[in-house]
């Protein structure tokens, strides 16, 4: 049976159980469903709670004809059977809370999304020498990023082929081989099984070591120093996966003076837990310009590189504000396009050395990049769980799922590799006071995601979807400004301040991943 | 330094650290800030899992790497200022915080006489945070302080905080150590 058929059957079963009034234990859906039957209207996306009279069809506790299942047309029922349509209706900007808190949906995300998509692993500057390794994560699972003795980079599942022990429990280091501490199976840095205790005596000729090397990802890519991998051999090439988003991802990864690449990760990765579903931060970074109230306190205090607000605003104030989404890919970014005749804008005024460095870089950038010098980026999300933040602060976050109700964040910080030490030092301090658990800005984000998640778990809360209607129908695929054409579906929010265009693009792709049986259906 | 001088110094240092904890737990943040010298370095590295014989790589490096905290009095003051805005939502409503300080050891005092101007002190902390309803964090670790006598009173000139966690188990660090 194909995955697609299985998914259809899963939801068909769900609906049949609802209509028959049968308790849905077999579905493994949350316990709350066992005491009452929840149904959902295919158009409104609203979740309703039904009582289940003995032997009868479920009816609304508070009857409303338009939302009762019995009133649905045959076509309406078919729509509902199509899967996640009722949960994620991006055309209308309505998304159910179930996708954030439902354990069955979370489990399917691991199979449908994290086992198939390209995921961020680490930066090559963290494993410069043969034998260097860094333990990272792909979805829930631990992986080893390793440079073998010939210099080739690999990504392995961090689990011994014999009995599953985590082969490497160090975060990073350099080694000749990786020995499992349980029974001693030993692997070379290219993953080959090279040592088995009592090999000949205990196994005889039985064990074919060539078949029992570490499990390696199907696809791996080193893109401008960043390492990415996918478990699914059918996944498109990394560059096809990134698609037109490359222009925006490069805003993080290219040197600020316009040269390709040339960035490095500062030593140290912030790793911490947030009690919320991984999609809260992923969608927030995808393009939430709306949450100014969250950060008003830090704006009052002033931690920006020029001593005010939380970042420099001069260059943003001479720019068009663009929400850029690639709904067919799920990637998005908050971007800014400065006026074609914009003068140099003051920035980094708290540090003359940094101000001078960025002024020089910008002059170079204007010379090298033509009209593209005008484009710069803010936060974004590359589907599913990697968030580049292109500028102020310049970081990359990965939102690792750790169960439906918990996220482990890994945060890397980037600088131009050849920037003067004093500039790097200034930026590092700015990054720390802005970002992560100790960052004055993001501390408040964590509070929001924590309690938004918590307040969405209840039986009643789940019946009421979130609203993503902001800026519906305002995007264009043919954005042009003074002859500069930009790729993607773009909503200009210069006047409106914000839209939820990017979030809708993220969930459109999310739904495609959840419904598609294979990569053929995702292309 | 005589034994008696050493005892008196230890007692003074303990009282100083307990009073500091009291100011924090009573949310008297401005008075707390006054306990630091203007050139204070307040540093809390990230800790990594590394082999036992590579302990030099266990901590992120001050002044080079990304750490949990690596700052001076200016950013400490801004953190306090942010809490006092009343709209720093991560601390509004305020958390209930309790600092337990123990194992106070005088590592060295200089000059080595009856009135040292600098004292290196190591202590243990247990910081308990409970907020809103059931949210609770317990953070445990060590501190290494350099205390300096300024106009007769002790001030903190340097604090290194070593948290006994690698992945931070708290969602944020909106409080002080």
Rg of Cα set of chain B: 17 Å
- Assembly of the depicted chains: heterodimer
Average pLDDT across residues of chain B?
Answer: 97
**Unreliable sequence segments of chain B:** none
CATH fold-level topology of chain B: Nuclear Transport Factor 2, Chain: A
Which class of chain B in CATH terms?
A: Alpha Beta
Query: Compute the gyration radius of chain A: what is it?
Result: 25 Å
- The CATH architecture category of the largest domain in chain A equals Alpha-Beta Complex
Q: β content of chain A, as a range?
A: 15-25%
Q: Helical content of chain A, roughly?
A: 25-40%
> Describe the biggest sheet of chain A?
5 strands, antiparallel
Q: What's the count of strands of chain B?
A: 6
CATH fold-type name of the largest domain in chain A: Naphthalene 1,2-dioxygenase Alpha Subunit, Chain A, domain 1
Low-confidence stretches of chain A: 21-82
**What would you call the structural class of chain B?**
alpha+beta
Architecture overview:
The complex is a heterodimer of chains A (523) and B (177). In chain A, helix 5 (103-114) packs across helix 15 and helix 9 packs across helix 15 (501-515). In chain A, the strands form 8 sheets. In chain A, strands 16, 17, 21, 22 and 23 form a 5-stranded antiparallel beta sheet that branches. Chain A has a 4-stranded antiparallel beta sheet with strand order 9-8-7-10, with no helix packed on it. Chain A has 3 domains: 3-86, no CATH class; 119-219, Rieske Iron-sulfur Protein (3-layer Sandwich), CATH 2.102.10; 235-521, Alpha-Beta Complex (Naphthalene 1,2-dioxygenase Alpha Subunit, Chain A, domain 1). With 523 residues, chain A is α+β, with helices and mostly antiparallel strands. In chain A, 27% of the residues lie in helices and 24% in strands. In chain A, strand 7 and strand 8 form a beta hairpin. The longest helix of chain A is centred in the first third of the chain and has 18 residues, at 3-20. Chain B has one domain (3-163): Nuclear Transport Factor 2, Chain: A, CATH 3.10.450. A 6-stranded mixed beta sheet of chain B has the order 2-1-6-5-4-3, covered by helices on one side. Helices cover 23% and strands 38% of the residues of chain B. The radius of gyration of chain B is 17 Å and the shape is globular. The two termini of chain B are 30 Å apart. Chain B has 177 residues and is of the alpha+beta class. The interface between A and B is large, with 43 and 41 residues.
């Amino acid at each position: 049976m194909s995955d697609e058929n299985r998914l259809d059957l899963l939801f068909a079963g769900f609906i049949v159980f609802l209509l028959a009034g049968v308790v849905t234990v077999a579905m493994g859906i949350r316990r709350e469903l066992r005491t009452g039957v929840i149904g959902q209207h295919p158009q409104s996306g609203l979740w309703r709670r039904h009582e289940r009279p003995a032997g009868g069809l479920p009816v609304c506790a508070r009857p409303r004809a338009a939302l009762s299942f019995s009133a649905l047309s045959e076509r309406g029922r078919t729509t509902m059977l199509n899967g996640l349509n009722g949960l994620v209706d991006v055309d209308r900007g309505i998304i159910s809370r179930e996708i954030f808190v439902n354990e069955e949906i979370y489990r399917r995300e691991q199979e449908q999304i994290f086992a198939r998509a390209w995921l961020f692993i680490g930066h090559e500057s963290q494993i410069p020498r043969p034998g260097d390794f860094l333990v990272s994560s792909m979805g829930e699972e631990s992986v080893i990023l390793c440079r073998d003795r010939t210099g080739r980079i690999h990504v392995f599942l961090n689990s011994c082929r014999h009995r599953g022990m985590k082969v490497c429990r160090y975060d990073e280091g350099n080694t000749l081989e990786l020995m499992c501490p349980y029974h001693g199976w030993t692997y070379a840095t290219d993953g080959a099984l090279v040592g088995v205790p009592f090999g000949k005596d205990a196994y005889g000729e039985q064990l074919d070591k060539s078949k029992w090397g570490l499990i390696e990802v199907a696809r791996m890519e080193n893109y401008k120093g960043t390492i990415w991998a996918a478990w699914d051999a059918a996944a498109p090439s990394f560059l096809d996966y990134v698609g037109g988003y490359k222009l925006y991802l490069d805003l993080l990864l290219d040197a600020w003076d316009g040269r390709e690449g040339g960035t490095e990760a500062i030593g140290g990765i912030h790793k911490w837990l947030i009690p919320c579903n991984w999609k809260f931060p992923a969608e927030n970074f995808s393009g939430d310009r709306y949450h100014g109230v969250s950060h008003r306190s830090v704006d009052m205090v002033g931690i920006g590189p020029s001593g005010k607000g939380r970042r420099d605003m001069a260059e943003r104030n001479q720019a068009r504000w663009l929400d850029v989404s690639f709904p067919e890919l799920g990637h998005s970014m908050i971007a800014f396009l400065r006026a074609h005749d914009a003068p140099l804008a003051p920035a980094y005024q708290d540090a003359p050395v940094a101000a001078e460095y960025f002024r020089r870089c910008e002059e170079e950038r204007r010379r090298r990049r033509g009209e593209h010098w005008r484009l710069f980026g803010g936060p974004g999300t590359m589907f599913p769980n990697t968030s580049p933040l292109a500028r102020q602060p310049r970081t990359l976050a990965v939102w690792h799922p750790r169960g439906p109700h918990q996220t482990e964040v890994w945060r890397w910080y980037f600088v131009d590799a050849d920037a003067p030490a004093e500039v790097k030092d200034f930026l590092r301090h700015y990054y720390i006071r802005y970002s992560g658990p100790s960052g004055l800005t993001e501390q408040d984000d964590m509070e929001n995601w924590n309690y938004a998640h918590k307040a969405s778990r209840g039986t009643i809360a789940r019946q009421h979807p979130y609203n993503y209607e902001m800026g519906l129908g305002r995007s264009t695929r043919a954005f042009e400004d003074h002859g500069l054409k930009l790729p993607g579906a773009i909503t200009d929010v210069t006047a409106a301040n914000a839209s939820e265009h990017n979030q809708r693009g993220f969930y459109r792709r999310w739904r495609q991943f959840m419904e598609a049986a294979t990569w053929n259906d995702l292309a | 330094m005589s034994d008696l001088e050493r005892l008196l110094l230890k007692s003074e240092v303990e009282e100083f650290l307990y009073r500091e904890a009291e100011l924090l737990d009573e949310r008297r943040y401005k008075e707390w800030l006054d306990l630091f010298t203007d050139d204070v370095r307040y540093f809390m590295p990230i800790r990594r899992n590394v082999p036992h014989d590579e302990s030099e790589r266990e901590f992120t490096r001050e002044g080079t790497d990304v750490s949990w905290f690596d700052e001076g009095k200016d950013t400490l003051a801004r953190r306090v200022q942010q809490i006092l805005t009343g709209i720093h939502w991560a601390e509004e409503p305020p958390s209930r915080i309790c600092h337990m300080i123990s194992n106070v050891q005088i590592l060295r005092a200089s000059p080595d006489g009856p009135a040292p101007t600098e004292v290196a002190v190591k202590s243990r902390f247990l910081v308990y945070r409970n907020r809103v309803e059931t949210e609770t964090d317990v953070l445990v670790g060590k501190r290494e302080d350099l205390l300096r006598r300024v106009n007769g009173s002790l001030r903190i000139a340097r604090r290194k905080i070593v948290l006994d966690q690698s992945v931070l188990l708290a969602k944020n660090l909106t409080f002080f150590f």
